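Title: Prediction job returns without error message
Component: structure pipeline
Severity: low
Priority: P3
Assignee: unassigned

Description:
Job completed but the reporter wants confirmation the result is attached to the right record. Sequence as submitted:
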Amino acid sequence: MYMIMPSEHFPEVGLGLFALSSIEVPLNSVVTLMPYAGPQYNWGDWHALCRHQWMMQVYGLNSNACSLEEQRMQGGNISRANHTYIDGRPDVHGNIAAYINSSIDHLLLTNCDFEERTNGKEEYFTRNVKGTYVMVCATRSIRFGEELFIKYSFNRPLPKCLQKTISQIWRFEFC
C-alpha cells in the first residue's frame, strides 16, 4: 500500500509516493513493487502526441531503454523505430508509479529501480503486444512512511565512490 502526498525532500516538485508499510529487501536482491503502467506508443506517435499533450513528456518512459543500451554496447544499429514509450500519466491511466520522484541528482535517496521484463503474468499492465513491460522494484529495504525515489534511467551504474558510501549506509553490496 502506498500514499500520494507532498514530497518531503523536494517540495518544489509537488507530490511523491510513500510506503504505508515496511518493505524488506534481502541483501543483493530486489522486491517487485508495481508496474509502470499505461498505453505504449512508437517514437513517431509519441512525439506527435506530446506536441498536443505536454504532460505526456513529464510522465513518459522509454520502456525499452535497457534493450537499446545493450544494443548500443554490442555495436548494434539503433534507430528511432526501436523506441517504445509508456504514457504513464497518473491522472489519465491511474499509474501511481508516476508519483515516484527522480533521485538522479541525489543518488543516496534512491530506493527503487526499473526492471524490464518479458512474457509474464503482468504483461497486460502496459498493453504491449510484444509482451515486454516495466516494473518498479525496491533495491533496498524501505521503512514505513519513507518516500520512494528512482533514477529515471536504465543501466546507468553508480560511480564507484558512491557505491562504497551507499553500501556503508544501507548495508548492501553492489554486484
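Comment from assignee: result matches the submitted record. The domain at 2-170 is CATH 2.170.270.10 (Beta-clip-like).
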